[in-house]
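During the reporting period the student researcher (J.K.) took over the structure-prediction task from the postdoctoral fellow and processed the backlog of single-chain submissions. One of the processed entries is reproduced below for the supervisory committee.
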Amino acid sequence: MADFDEEYEAEMSVRLACPPERVWAALTVADEPAAWYRPAELAPQAFSEPVVGGRFRVGSTVSQAGFSGEYLVLDMPCRIEQTWRWDGEARESRVRIGLVADGDSTEVRVVHGRLDAATAEACRQGWVSCLSRLPAHLARG
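J.K. obtained the following structure tokens:
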């Protein structure tokens, strides 16, 4: 059983060669997250209702693994805060995403918190993996 006496965070950042508004769309608009959050071989599906209190979900047609949550803060195009729950898990975590314009690029910083130590490391690796797919998606327009 996980020890939740202490809470941990997974943090990572990436610089993307496009404006924050485009990154914002990739994070929140309709089914765009399906194009990059999960590997294509998992046949990802996504839903997003980008309003405070709105829901989002990323799942798969070939895998039982998915996650969903609620948008808590949407400060376009700078900040997203959302709850996060893996399918089948009782514990809810929290994700904060910051977007900072830097010339023609955007610095994206993700902090996934309210986790135990092992889950924080797994989430960090997961975010690194999914964020590595985002530049190719953005390049396709």
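The committee noted the following: The chain has one domain: 10-139.
J.K. will present the remaining backlog at the next meeting.
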